[in-house]
Amino acid sequence: LVSLKEIIPSDRAKEISAISGKDPRIVELMLKESTILEVKPGVVVTRHRLGFECTSAGIDRANTGNPSDELVSLLPNDPDQSARKVSDTIFQEMGKRVGVVINDSFGINGRYGSIGLAIGLANMPGLIEQSGRKDLYGKSRNVKISFVDEIAAAGSLLMGQADDALPVVLIHGLLYEPQNGKLSDVVANN
Predict the structure, then answer these.
(1) What's the rounded Cα separation, in Å, for the pair 36 and 48?
(2) Which residues of 168-180 are buried (b: 16+ CB within 10 A; e: fewer)?
(3) What are the residues whose beta carbons fall under 8 Å from the beta carbon of 82, sequence distance 6 or more?
(4) For the chain, what is the HEC assignment?
(5) For burial by CB atoms within 10 Å, which of 38, 116, 119, 163 has the most?
(6) What is the pLDDT of residue 141?
(7) What is the signed CA dihedral for 3, 47, 82, 181, rounded to 10 degrees?
(8) From the centroid of its chain, how far is CA 134?
(9) One pLDDT digit (tens) per residue for the chain, 190 residues
(10) Radius of gyration (Cα) for the chain, nearest Å?
(11) CA–CA dist 121, 141 (Å, integer)
(12) CA 143 to centroid of chain Cα atoms
């Protein structure tokens, strides 16, 4: 969490704010967290330092406490490490090694609404490759599935987007080979 009361916007942040209508202090944080790709009224499209495109660098005012505190949340510095800490704590407390996906809801340029996407993972594959499989008509298929994004989207539906107050979803019975997957397995850093 970051207090906007402590942020002094640069001239560049003020320029982007004038076009987008976004709070210039939040724009200043966007500049620190990401590269600005596109600015238009109501939207700032960014490439976050973690490698993915999203609106507003993933900076969020929702569920950050009293509005008068002017707090915003940023994405974790190392979400894979955060996921490993959660998984390790569960192992220490319960003796069970579980996969963990940290997700967030993102606006995606050119799409209405938000979608849950993985921003960190531990003890599970990020990407599953299925080679040599056949489709319904017998044609060979080589398929790559963003396994963690599929899980994040399903979890996001259950977690809700407002006052649902369900920060954790337990998915039971999902079969996969334990791996040391990481966010960079599914994010194209171009």
Answers:
(1) 9
(2) ebeeeeeeeeebe
(3) 76, 102, 120
(4) CEEHHHCCCCHHHHHHHHHHCCCHHHHHHHHHHEEEEEEECCEEEEEECCCCEEEHHHCECCCCCCHHHCEEECCCCCHHHHHHHHHHHHHHHHCCCCCEEEEEEEECCCCCCEEEEEEEEECCCCCEEEEEEECCCCCEEEEEECHHHHHHHHHHHHHCCCCCCCCCCCCCCCCCCCCCCCHHHCCCCC
(5) 119
(6) 83
(7) 180
(8) 32
(9) 999 999 999 999 999 999 999 999 999 999 999 999 999 999 999 999 998 888 899 898 887 888 888 999 999 999 999 999 999 999 999 999 999 999 988 877 777 888 899 999 999 999 998 877 888 898 888 888 899 999 999 999 988 877 777 888 999 898 888 889 999 999 876 4
(10) 19
(11) 27
(12) 23
Give the per-residue pLDDT at 178: 83
Residue 75 CB neighbour total at 10 angstroms: 22
**pLDDT of the residue at 140:** 85
∠ CA 157-77-101, rounded to 5°: 30
